[in-house]
Amino acid sequence: MAGKSTYKPSTGIERWFDERLPVIRIMHDQFVEFPTPRNLNYWWTFGGILMFCLFVQLVTGIVLAMHYAPNEALAFDSIEHIMRNVNWGWLMRYTHAVGASMFFLAVYIHILRGLYYGSYKAPREILWILGVIIFMLMIATAFMGYSLPWGQMSFWAVTVITNLFGSFDALIPGLGTAIVEWVWGGFAVGNPTLNRLFSLHYLFPFMIVGVVLLHIWALHIPGNNNPTGIEIKAKKEALSFHPYYTVKDAFALSVFAILFAGFVFYAPNVLGHADNYVPADPLVTPAHIVPEWYFLPFYAILRAIPSKLFGVIAMFGSIMVLVLVPWLDTSRVRSASYRPIYKWFFWSFVVTGIALGYLGAMPPEGWYLIFGRAFTLYYFAFFLIVMPLVGLIETPTKMPGSITEDVLGRSKGATPTAEGAAASGAPAAPEKR
Ligand code: HEM
Fold first, then answer.
1. Pocket test for ligand 1, best of 51, 55, 116, 134 (most atoms within 8 A of CB)
2. CATH 1.10.10.10 holds for 18-289
3. What are the backbone angles phi and psi of residue 26, rounded to the nearest 5°?
4. Rounded to whole angstroms, how far apart are CA atoms 15 and 229?
5. Rounded to whole angstroms, how far apart are CA atoms 365 and 372?
6. Comparing 296 with 423, which gets the higher pLDDT?
7. What is the pLDDT of residues 235-255, one digit of tens each?
8. Which residues of the chain are in CATH 1.20.810.10 domains?
9. Tag placement on the chain: N or C end, fewer CB within 10 Å?
C-alpha cells in the first residue's frame, strides 16, 4: 500500500470528519499521493479508461431503463420510442450500445498489456484473477443487454446461447434440457426469459463495480507493475499519482473519447447488425446468426469443434484458462521486452485473436473451418504449451538494473544491486516469489 498516510486535514471540518470516517484520507492516499512507477507508458492508461466506460454504461443504462419495457410485446417498440420520442433518448441509446463495444476494445487492450508485461506474475495473481472475474461478468452483462431490444439477432442469439446448456444431455440424459427450460422459464425463449435477462442485466454492472473495487485494492497492495517488470527500489523511482498520472490518464481518455464520439455521432450502427432492427420472430431464422464483434473469437472456437459438448467446453475453457496464467508462465522475468522468444509467440497470439474474430463472422465451412481449427489449436497451445515451455528454455536479454536506469540510462542509474548486476550481460535474476 502507500505506506504511512500523508494526509493532513486542512480545516476543522475535515479533521472532524477524518476522525469519524477517514474516506478523504483513503482517497488522498490511494489516488493523490499513491506512489506510481515513473516509467509507465500509455498502455497503463486503459485501467482508468475502463472505469470511465463502466461509469458511462451505468449512467446511460439507468436512464434507458426509465423508458424501456421488458416485455416481449413492448420491448422492440419501447426502444424505437426511446430513439424517436424521448428527449436525448437517441444519444443515451447510441452511447450505451457503442459504449459496450468501446468497453470491450479497452478491456482487450488492458488484458493484452497484462500478458505482454507479465503483470499477472507474483505478487499480482489475485489482481489478475479478479480481472478475469470482471471479464466474465462483462461477457454475461453484454450478452444479456444485447437481448433487450428483442430484435431478430437478440432473439436468435439468446436461442443459440441458451441452447448450449442442452449439450449436458450428452453427460446425463435430460439434464441439459432441464437446465435450458429452467433458464428460459418455459418451453421456449419468451417473455419470462426477457424479464429475467433484463433483471440480471441491471444487476450485473453493480457486481462489476464491487469486483472493480477489489481489483483496485489488490492493485494497491503491491503497487503497479511497469514496462521493465522491475519493482520500485528507490523512492525517486515513483511519482505521486496526482498530478503526473491523472494528467496522463486524462489525455489518453480524451483521445479515447474522440474515437468513442466518432462512432456515436457518425457511425452508431456500424458495430452492430442490421437484422436487429427487425422485430424478433420465432418463425423466421436469420440467414447468419452472428454475435457482436467482441464475442466472435469465442464463437469461432465454439464452432471449430465438431461435438456440441466439447465445443461448449472449449469456448468456456478459452476464458477460464486465463485464471491459470500466473502459474502457467514459468519465465524468470516479467516483461516481454526482455523475452526474445516469448515476444514472437505473444504477437502470434494477437494475430490469432484477430483471425478468430474474422472467422467467427464467416460460415463454419471449407477453409474457414480449417483455419478456425488451426487458430483454436494455437489459442490453447499459447497458454498450455508456449507459456510453460518458453519460460524454461529462453534466456532473457540484457535488462536495466532498475527503473531509474531504464529511464535515465546506465550512467545515472541506481547503485548496482543483485538484480542490477544481472543487467551487465548475465541473464536476469529469478524473481522473488
Ligand atoms: C471493468 C473492467 C476493469 C477495470 C475498470 C479495471 C481497472 C484497472 C485499473 C484502474 C488499473 C490500474 C491502471 C492500469 O494498470 O491500467 C488496473 C490494473 C490491472 N488490471 Fe484491470 N480493470 C478491469 C479489467 C481487467 C481485466 C479483465 C483484467 C485481466 C484479465 C485486468 C487485469 C489487470 C492487471 C494485471 C492490472 C495491473 C497492471 C499493472 O500494474 O501492470 N483488469 N485495472
1. 134
2. no
3. -65, -45
4. 39
5. 9
6. 296
7. 999 999 999 999 999 999 999
8. 18-289
9. C
Phi then psi for 411, rounded to 5 degrees? -60, -40
Strand, coil or helix: what is 68? coil
Tell me what the mean pLDDT of segment 345-368 comes to.
97
Beta carbons of 309 and 168 less than 8 angstroms apart: yes
Atom of ligand 1 nearest to the CA of 114: 35
Per-residue model confidence (pLDDT) at position 433:
41
Atom number, ligand 1, closest to the C-alpha of residue 135: 27
Give the integer Cα–Cα distance in Å for 143 and 161.
9
Separation between Cα atoms, residue 71 and residue 196, nearest integer Å:
10
Task: Tell me the three-class secondary structure of 344-406, residue by residue.
Answer: HHHHHHHHHHHHHHHHHCCCCCHHHHHHHHHHHHHHHHHHHHHHHHHHHHCCCCCCCCCHHHH
pTM above 0.85, yes or no: yes
DSSP code of residue 111? H
Tell me, what's the pLDDT at 408? 85
Greatest CA span in the chain, whole angstroms?
Answer: 74
Side-chain half-sphere CA neighbours of 109 within 13 A:
16
Instruction: Decide if pLDDT at 430 tops 80.
Output: no
- Spell out which residues line ligand 1, taking CB within 6 angstroms: 44, 46-48, 50-51, 54, 107, 110-111, 114, 117, 119-120, 124, 127-128, 131-132, 134-135, 208, 212, 215-216, 219, 224-225, 322
Answer yes or no: is pLDDT of 394 > 80.
Answer: yes
Burial 177-198 (b: 16+ CB within 10 A, else e): eebbeebbeeeebeeebbeebb
